[in-house]
Amino acid sequence: MVQQVTQGIKISVKTEFDGTFYKNRKIQYAFAYNVTIENQSKDTVQLTSRHWKIKDALNVTEIVEGEGVIGQKPILHPGEKHMYTSGCLLLSPFGAMKGYYNMVNYATTRRFRVSIPLFKLSAPFSMN
């Protein structure tokens, strides 16, 4: 598990390999990632959007941006957590992801970014 705190918002990420399958005659490697967003600040905040940079071992990079996470824009009061699971597909058995969440502080209406730490995706059979 990787963790990082930015401006009082703690991000924790745990990954798992979900298997392989063929799509368009190419093997795809499926990974899940479980994210916990914890508000350790004294203010109420809301996650408004996300930005991901996904890179595999073949040097293929994909940028994913969008509103909220899994169709939600969670509001977190001080001490609250929001957890979700999502996934990605790679063309190689290992890669990495990193990114950030755009958030807004309800007390000040200030917008800010929360870093999502780099985390690795690896199929167990690809490890030495």
UniProtKB/TrEMBL annotation:
Organism: Aequorivita vitellina
Domain ApaG residues, every copy: 3-128
Domain of life: Bacteria
InterPro entries (UniProt xref): ApaG-like, ApaG_domain, ApaG_sf
Protein's gene: apaG
Name of the featured protein: Co2+/Mg2+ efflux protein ApaG
Matching PANTHER family: OS05G0170800 PROTEIN
